[in-house]
């Protein structure tokens, strides 16, 4: 069904919220999706949203207005998967150059933090199916927001992201500070020991969120920081719970939150411009945000991390990491290698016979 909808160039999305045992499906049948140029224009909008890191003519905010919404069971599909263990790989010359530029800007006190990302393009294997990759992700990454989305404007994107940008349950709204990364410890996630660099990264994001919420006179209830699992990685997370006096100005709040220092840097405006000028490629919808927006219903918007763009002949995977004065080149490269594994597993997924079995590892 999913592969067929992509071939027909339809506007649709499937998604599964963390720890749910079913998937949500929505589709817009009769006209093109709406296009927005500014995040504030999301005020009073009721739609499925896919927004880029930086809004432009080439990468606008796209709204799918669902004419049909359903909840479905996750199909039982057995899939062969591969996992490449990370060894002592070394950064390529392009990453070395970008890292030097970003690190020098931070060490020169031009920025408190910058986020340097990269993309990895790979040939799309003949057997690759976006549908099967999505179903595998639903079973494998149970603690992440898993989605597949297609529009004529954005193309096809698949992601498994652990980071909430804005969500609600009843009258309680939530955002998170998620930063710091290390491989999953051999025992369990709670045995992770965090160094000062990772702790500082997480504090920066938490401080930023407090300041942005204070613009709305919001004093959130906080939980954390604590360790959470995302695939074969763990992160430091703090939850922020709050009430909103006006649910019809969510676009303003989203504009003040996005992009957070977890995917951009500090100070935000200057860091974003530095990234656009010096990262060496266009992030497109990577590190933007995606999900269902409903001012008076359930809103679940997530930062678009651990994602890939699916094209006819190739797959493009994305990953990034925070650069602080203490950052080391090889450490940051290995962090991006580890993050890329989330999508690499899906890119190699292949259908097995009915006797095969897939694993759930998240």
Give a concise summary:
This protein is of the alpha+beta class.
Q: What attributes does this structure have?
A:
362 residues, alpha+beta, nine-stranded antiparallel β-sheet, 7 helices, 20 strands
What does this protein structure show overall?
- The structure is a single chain.
- The chain has helices at 2-7, 93-107, 130-140, 196-214, 250-257, 268-278, 329-347, and strands at residues 11-16, 22-28, 34-36, 47-51, 61-64, 68-73, 79-80, 113-123, 145-151, 155-161, 164-169, 172-183, 221-230, 233-242, 265-266, 289-293, 300-303, 307-310, 314-323, 350-351.
- It is an alpha+beta fold and 362 residues long.
- The strands form three sheets. It has a nine-stranded antiparallel sheet, with helices on one face. The chain has a nine-stranded antiparallel sheet with strand order 3-5-4-16-17-11-12-14-13. A two-stranded antiparallel ribbon has the order 7-20.
- The longest helix has 19 residues, at 196-214.
Outline: globular
Q: What is the helical fraction, as a range of percent? A: 10-25%
Secondary structure class reads alpha+beta
State the major sheet.
9 strands, antiparallel
End-to-end C-alpha gap: 26 Å
Number of strands: 20
Report the portion of residues in β strands.
Answer: 25-35%
Please, what is the average pLDDT? Answer: 92
| Number of helical stretches of at least 4 residues | 7
Nearest-angstrom radius of gyration? 19 Å
Order of helices and strands: HEEEEEEEHEHEEEEHEEHEHEEEEHE
- Given as residue ranges, the uncertain stretches (5+ residues, pLDDT < 50) are 352-360
Give me the side-by-side strand order of the main sheet: 6-2-1-9-10-18-19-8-15
């Amino acid at each position: 069904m999913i592969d067929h909808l992509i071939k027909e160039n339809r506007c649709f999305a499937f998604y599964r919220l963390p720890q749910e045992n079913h998937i949500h499906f929505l589709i817009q049948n009769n006209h093109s999706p709406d296009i927005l140029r500014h995040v504030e224009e999301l005020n009073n909008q009721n739609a499925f949203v896919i927004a880029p890191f930086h809004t432009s003519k080439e990468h606008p905010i796209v709204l799918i207005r669902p004419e049909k919404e359903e909840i479905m069971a996750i199909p039982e599909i057995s899939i062969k998967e591969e996992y490449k263990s990370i060894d002592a790989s070394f950064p390529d010359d392009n990453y070395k150059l970008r890292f030097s530029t970003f690190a020098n800007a931070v060490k020169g006190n031009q920025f408190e933090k910058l986020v340097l990302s990269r993309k990895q393009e790979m040939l799309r294997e003949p057997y690759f199916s976006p549908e099967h990759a999505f179903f595998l992700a639903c079973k494998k990454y149970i603690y992440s927001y898993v989605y597949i989305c297609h529009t004529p404007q954005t193309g096809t994107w698949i992601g498994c992201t652990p980071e909430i940008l804005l969500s609600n349950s009843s009258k309680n709204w939530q955002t998170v500070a998620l930063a710091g990364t290390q491989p999953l410890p051999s025992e369990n996630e709670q045995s992770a020991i965090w160094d000062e660099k990772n702790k500082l990264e997480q504090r920066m994001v938490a401080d930023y969120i407090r300041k942005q919420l204070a613009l709305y006179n919001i004093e959130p209830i906080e939980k954390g920081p604590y360790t959470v699992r995302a695939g074969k990685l763990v992160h430091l997370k703090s939850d922020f719970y709050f009430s909103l006096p006006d649910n019809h100005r969510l676009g303003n709040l989203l504009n003040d939150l996005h992009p957070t220092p977890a995917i951009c840097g500090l100070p935000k405006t200057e860091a974003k411009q530095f990234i656009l000028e010096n990262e060496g490629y266009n992030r497109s919808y990577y590190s933007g945000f995606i999900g269902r927006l409903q001012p008076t219903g359930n809103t679940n918007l997530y930062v678009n991390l651990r994602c890939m763009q699916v094209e006819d002949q190739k797959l493009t995977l994305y990953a990034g990491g925070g650069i602080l004065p203490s950052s080391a080149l090889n450490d940051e490269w290995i962090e991006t290698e580890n993050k890329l594994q989330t999508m690499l597993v899906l890119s190699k997924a292949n259908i097995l016979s009915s006797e095969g079995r897939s694993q759930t590892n998240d």
